[in-house]
Amino acid sequence: MEIEVLRPIFTQLLTPHGIAPVEGFPEEPRLLFKQTPNIEERAKIRFILGRQVKFEQGQEDEVNRLTKHWRAKLTPQLENSTETFDEQDNEYLEDLASEAPVIRMVNHLLERAMDLSASDIHFEPEENCLKVRCRVDGVMLLLEQLSQKVSAAIASRLKLMARLDIGEKRLPQDGRIQYKLGHRTLDMRVSTLPGVHGESIVLRILDRSDVGVSLEHLGMPSDILTAYNDLIRQPFGMILVTGPTGSGKTTSLYGTLEKINTGSQKMITVEDPVEYQMQGITQIHVNAKIGLSFAAGLRSIVRQDPDVILVGEIRDQETAEIAIESALTGHLVFSTLHTNDAASAITRLQDMNIDTYLISSSVLGIMAQRLVRRICSHCSADVALEEGEAKILGVRAEDYPLIKRGTGCERCGQTGYRGRVGIYELLILSDELRHVISQGSDANVIRAQALKEGMRTLRQDALEKLQQGMTTPEEVVRVTRAV
Ligand SMILES: [Zn+2]
Fold first, then answer.
1. 8 A C-beta contact, residue 364 and residue 426
2. How far is the CA of 384 from the centre of ligand 1 (A)?
């Protein structure tokens, strides 16, 4: 049996019924099911496969793994027609985008990205090919390399799905796609950018199951978790989470709001975009086109008498001023800043012309964070830290007798990593620190004082996670290089 024949059977007959062939199929003619298929279903599958197959009960996890395995293996073919066509002919492009092979290919790519729990998917036309990559656990992975000839058809299909103007290829466009995968509906933000070799299209997946996790499961060391839990139960003041894009700040803040959302307080957020919808919380989406900026949203929020406010990000002086004023007038305010470490958040606010006295009296604490990739538990093996690695990390190898490494397996896509874990640095403003800050001290002085009071740095937390076998030396270096 040809593998090409198996593909439609797999996508249309087996997957919807929760059935997957074993790895050795078709030589080993066994099918695993999650729920016993009825007699007609079995007969139909046997008839279409044209052979005897054995049906067996499988573990849900194992059937899911096999489904992903076959999806990765059975890439649909796109006719790489040599025919050239006028790319300005929009009607033709629309027809092309509605053809079954193109639809199948795009659906296949979206589903593969979901299988890998990607956060975004990138369609990148190059001179001779169309690269489809996705970001998994913060790192880009090549999903598929297609012929450059199909680039326009795929771009048109994505634009059609996002209800964008197919004919507009010279200006960037933004849209949304809702994609149904099984019983889940995925919400994606789409942006197009005209490049030299065609339109580059990025889909950002908004509805991700890993966003709604509780604070306890993010990887905070227990002492930081305890201190942070105290901090977020203060009646008013400002709490900042800092780090570059993709460092898990949003997840931490959602976890924080979930934690304190008991129903007895009014909570409002202004975000760009709203990534995850929470029960009992009013969430506003920033919209620059109609003038709804963070500052404008925040000004309106305050008039709605909230107890807790989340401002997605403080980017400018105006937002910073309103946020601080709110924190000083009885509101608990959460926000993020793009700084490398906790102490630098103070100087960033100073740079936005915020009075040092206002900073020291409003800010309760700052948490800096990053995400390191977690070693895959299915293929991890004990190893020793090598001398060279110890040197790069600036530690003694004998302090790290048993660290772990993933050897690569199917569950982690041969990367040796699966999922991520946060590393944290929590700076809590003591009276002494408030004094240091109100004098206009720079980040080094603030950091030195915080360390004196027992703060542990991001690097120290990352090294502890290395010692515990949660991540690798490479990840520690990659993620904490700048701190
Ligand atoms: Zn693995």
1. no
2. 19
